[in-house]
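This part of the workshop introduces the protein records we will be handling. A record pairs a protein's sequence with a compact description of its fold. Comparing a sequence with its tokens is the quickest way to learn the format. To make this concrete, we reproduce a full record directly below:
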Amino acid sequence: MAAAVMTVEALEKLLADEFPQAFHAGSGLTIEELWQGGCRVRQGYRDNFIRPGGTISGPTMMTLADFTFYVALLGAIGPQPLAVTTSLNINFLRKPEQRDLIAGARILKLGQRLAVMEVEIFSDGVEEPVAHVTSTYSIPPRQR
């Protein structure tokens, strides 16, 4: 795997500076691995993620997926905080366990203005994915 354009440390600093409401010490989000074209992110389990029926809520998984896409994209293109989600589609495949969630992203196509990516979300320690997500991001024009 080729190295990402940004290091995990540089990306964490950018996220903490630009999006402190989402990425902070209490968020439970950890960038575990980053490479050119993808990443792996962990969302630490919290009881407030549980919805009636004892499953982790859909919005929790959607937030994790979108965050993971953003990490993968910035790892590939560098600091572009104005890159935004233009579409996100999620398929919930099975009930997630009440434990950490692991999201693995891969960039399917990276163009000058758009990136298409996919993510699989797993309950920590479980082989079968709990969700499959696809997304398109808009990349702002690069400053020259």
About this structure: The two ends are 29 Å apart (CA to CA). The chain has a mean pLDDT of 94. The helical segments are 8-18, 58-77. Strands lie at 29-35, 38-43, 50-51, 55-56, 84-92, 101-110, 114-123, 131-138.
